[in-house]
Write a structure and sequence with these properties.
By secondary structure, the protein is an all-alpha fold. It is built from seven helices and no strands. It folds into two domains: 52 residues, Orthogonal Bundle (Arc Repressor Mutant, subunit A), CATH 1.10.10.60; 48 residues, Orthogonal Bundle (Arc Repressor Mutant, subunit A), CATH 1.10.10. It is elongated, with a radius of gyration of 15 Å.
Length: 122
């Protein structure tokens, strides 16, 4: 379960991880449509994956990978509202596996992408 529903980090409490968290969120925002791995983000920002995960989770209440998935689902909902095909939407928001996308979408939204699209059209 995602503890924090915002797509922005919590306000900084003076913790040293806040600036790197903000930069990671900006990076995700610019690149969520591309394949992003925790290892890539850790290497890019010069931290171990474990340290980065802990710092990000402390700052946002959400693990990095969950943040990425949530951002992709948010974008998918916007695209599906336009009537776009589910497969096209899956690829457009950075998922490369339609079954995984469908499972994650249903888990976060409570319905499948196809049903969501149909409801948005009706």
């Amino acid at each position: 379960m995602i503890a924090h529903s915002s797509t922005r980090p919590r306000e900084s409490s003076g913790e040293p991880e806040a600036p790197v968290t903000e930069r990671i969120v900006e990076y995700i925002e610019k690149n969520y449509t591309m394949p992003i791995t925790l290892r890539e983000i850790a290497d890019r920002f010069g931290y171990s994956a474990c340290h980065l995960t802990n710092a990000f989770s402390r700052s946002t209440g959400t693990p990095i990978t969950a943040w990425i998935i949530r951002r992709r689902i948010q974008a998918a909902k916007e695209i599906l509202r336009t009537g776009a095909d589910v497969g096209t939407t899956c690829q457009a928001v950075g998922f490369n596996d339609l079954c995984y996308f469908t499972r994650q979408f249903a888990r976060h939204v409570g319905t499948t992408p196809g049903r969501f699209r149909a409801g948005a059209q009706g």
